[in-house]
Design a protein that fits this description.
- The protein is of the alpha/beta class.
- The chain is built from four helices and six strands.
- A six-stranded mixed β-barrel has the order 1-5-2-4-3-6.
- It is elongated.
Length: 127
């Protein structure tokens, strides 16, 4: 994928992050991925997931080529080992694409309704 960054992904270590669906990367990679809170696509083999990206300020052991991912995302990608890590490709994506492909139904419905509202508005302006 164009502009993808290859990182080794492990499970989140901060207790406060374990319930959030995020990807933590070293702060120097944040700008290449669109900054804090931007959406990224994480690919491993044939599967891909979408997560918001955050910096990893102060997390020990997180080197330049590493990232931390939530448990649900790791299991969807097939990263089962708690201590091991898996090579993944991380690339920036648009928020709408992430919401349209999200595994949670509420994200997909909201994105579809927003897209339909935009189309209806454009048609209303033209007609």
């Amino acid at each position: 994928m164009k502009n993808a960054i290859s990182v080794r992904v492990r499970l989140l270590t901060k207790a406060a992050d374990k319930s959030r669906r995020i990807l933590r990367v070293p702060n120097r990679l944040l700008e290449r991925l669109g900054g804090r809170n931007s959406w990224v696509r994480i690919e491993s083999g044939k599967s891909a997931i979408y997560r918001q990206v955050y910096g990893a300020g102060g997390i020990p052991g997180l080197s330049r080529g590493m990232a931390e991912l939530d448990y649900d995302g790791a299991s969807q990608l097939g990263i089962a080992s708690r201590s091991g890590s898996e090579e993944c490709l991380v690339s920036r994506c648009f928020s709408l694409v992430a919401h349209l492909n999200h595994p949670d139904e509420k994200h997909r419905v909201v994105a579809r309704l927003a897209l339909a509202a935009i189309v209806i508005t454009i048609v209303g302006i033209i007609v």
